[in-house]
Amino acid sequence: MTTHTDDLAHHGHGSGHDHHGEDDVGHGTFRSYMTGFVLAAILTIIPFWLVMGEVLESSRTTALVLMALAIVQIVVHVIYFLHLDTKAESGWNLLAFIFTLVLVVITLSGSIWIMYHLDSNMMPMSPHDMRNMP
Amino acid sequence: MSDTLAPTLPGGATPSSTEPVFYVAGEHHPKNGTLLGFWVYLMSDCLIFACLFATYGVLGRNYAAGPSGADLFDLPLVAANTTLLLLSSITYGFAMLEMRNQRVGMVQLWLAITGILGLGFLSLEIYEFTHMIAEGAGPQRSAFLSSFFTLVGTHGLHVTFGIIWLVTLMAQVRHHGLIAENRRRLMCLSLFWHFLDLIWIGVFTFVYLMGVLP
Fold first, then answer.
1. Which phi-psi region, left, alpha or beta, contains residue B111 (left: φ > 0; alpha: ψ -120 to 50)?
2. Residue B62: which residues within 8 A CB-CB, separation 6 or more?
3. Model confidence at B21, in pLDDT bands (50, 70, 90)?
4. For B58, which of A115, A116, B106, B169 could close a Cys bridge (C-beta 3.0–4.6 Å)?
């Protein structure tokens, strides 16, 4: 709190309309919010259209396209809504995010990979057997 | 990291008269300790959802001869839910922009709209859940439904607490105005709210859309 002037000088966009410079880091503008919103809307409409309109023949292709679109939309959200960049909190935000991303990828791909192999090594079971399971 | 923390610890622990001045002058610690801490919380929350997504990824096709996603999911309803949540994200963004302009009334208005959109999302989700349970497709029916209700329910729970937090902050802003503390709290909720929308991207893609694929 004692270093207000110092903070403002550091930010570069310390426009003088408020006295609380220290909590104004990483804000978007109207333009950036709208860009993010329009991109997110488009990236939401396409997957719903692909599935509800049954556009693509193969389920596998559709699934891959869906995942790619989801990843792009997540990036859009992170940049335009969560305002993640290399400058916020001296890059610690970004570092924490990348670390989490690595853990998420390991958790997801690892679980699905291992359990898929486990499943295919199990004895096959018919729906009838399943219904009579305890 | 040690470079970041070292200057603050001695300065905070001992009176400044006995310490050389350069400890204070350094100013290497992050300017927004709260926001960084809250970000780390969000990342840990992200890991919770990663585990739930992984569970769903493993169990999502184990129907136990019960209904599948294609039988249960109502895509227009999910599309409406997605729209509500995305709209609430941008209205919260508008509230943040008005906060920067120090316009209390507009901040309150956009926060209220965000809250109403969030409530709309929740009511649609509760309607969907009760509908499924009434059809006999409750969480106890199959591994698929257990993991579905856990994942989507946890997200819904987050939205519920987000709305409670939002109402609390609206009361705070009404009583104290846009003071530094309230601005900080609003920024934390902003991160939380946009983060929930981000998780929902995973939910509608991974659970709903890919669930109805043949």
1. alpha
2. B142, B143, B144
3. low
4. A115
Q: Are residues A112 and A72 in the same domain?
A: no
A113 and chain B in contact, CB less than 8 A: no
In a domain, A75, yes or no: yes
Q: Which of A15, A79, A10 is nearest to B31 (CA)?
A: A10
What is the per-residue pLDDT across A32-51, written as a single tens digit (0 to 9) for each? Answer: 999 999 999 999 999 999 99
Is A130 in Cβ contact with B64 (below 8 Å)?
yes
One domain, residues A31 and A6? yes
**Token duo for residue B40:** 């780390």
Give the start-to-end residue ranges of the domains of chain B. 1-30, 32-212
The arithmetic mean of pLDDT across residues B109-115, rounded, is 97
What is the rounded CA–CA span in Å between residue B161 and residue B188?
13
> Residues A61, A76: one domain?
yes
The answer to whether residues A8 and A57 belong to one domain is: yes
Q: Which residue shows structure tokens 């294609």?
A: B70
B15 residue type, one letter = P
User: What domain range includes position A117?
Assistant: 89-122
The pLDDT value given to residue B141: 92
A64 and A109 fall within a common domain = no
Residue B147 has pLDDT above 50, yes or no: yes
What gap in Å lies between CA A112 and CA B58, rounded to an integer?
Answer: 6
**Total domains, chain A:** 2
Burial B2-12 (b: 16+ CB within 10 A, else e): eeeeebbeebe
Architecture of domain B32-212: Up-down Bundle (1.20)
For residue B34, what is the DSSP state?
Answer: H
pTM: 0.80
pLDDT at A23 (0 to 100): 44
Q: Which of A6, A24, A77, A94 to substitute to test the interface with B, most B CBs within 10 Å?
A: A77
Q: Which of residues 56-85 of A touch B (CB under 8 A)?
A: 59, 62-63, 66-67, 69-70, 73-74, 77-78, 81-82
CB contact under 8 A, A63 and B210: yes
